[in-house]
Design goal:
single chain; 290 residues; mainly alpha; 12 helices
Amino acid sequence: MSAFIYKSLSVLFFVLMSVCIKATGDHLPLFQVVFFRNFFALLPLIFFIYFLKLNFRSINNFKLHIMRAFIGITAMSLFFISLRYVPLVEMQTISYSSVFFISILSIFFLGEKIGYRRIIAIIVGFIGVIVILKPTSAIFSNYSILPLIASLFLSMAVIVLKKILLTNNNILSVWVFTTLCTLISLFFYNESWIWPNNFDLSLMIASGILGFIAQICLTKSFQLADASLLAPLDFSSVIWSFFLGYIFFAELISINVLIGGSIIIVSVGYIFYRERVLQKQVVLGVNKQF
């Protein structure tokens, strides 16, 4: 199976995971959803690690792992809240802004340099975000700002992950992250947590398994081809989000999302192109690592 097929499956499974989370609605406490999402991903992940015979003792730099877990669970929680109130395609499109944040943060934390072309692409991309958000004096009451904030935290988590992967295996790093997020979410346990009905429980189990499969497919695709070569396939998530959002939730795309999303996709696409020209390692915004 080619790298393109693995990457395409990864994008699809990540979107299907989002569909499962969104389908639970808002009747389950947020951190209960976070707990189930991570817990049910741990089980197949442990078997996969055993199958690959990975050495847990090779895990190091625990401070960065813990930092990534707290930043990542914040991003995860904000994305999950977004799924409750924001159309699927809109949330997916805004999440691409993490690519812009990563570019900016890489300057300060990774010592990377960006040229004027990248700067222009970032500015144009944020114009697309503004078109979608339609900022007014009540912008902070607009749920659409949640995936933007989530993307900021996601970009910080990715920056930390880049440092972690210098000395750690990717699959083991996912295991550490998933384990820590499972434990952290338990600290928010209270009397509002309920045992989900069979339908919601099935969705939670599916979200964990789908997230696990998506991550494995993503890792496999990167083993077979360069990340920058696979980057354009990320845009298929917008198409999947549109069709699945319409089929399952009767969501329609607004003119603001259509225009702003097009601007964002063009900007992100140009950044991916420049990364390939400069032969750098692209960090994909849609690769949420959870």
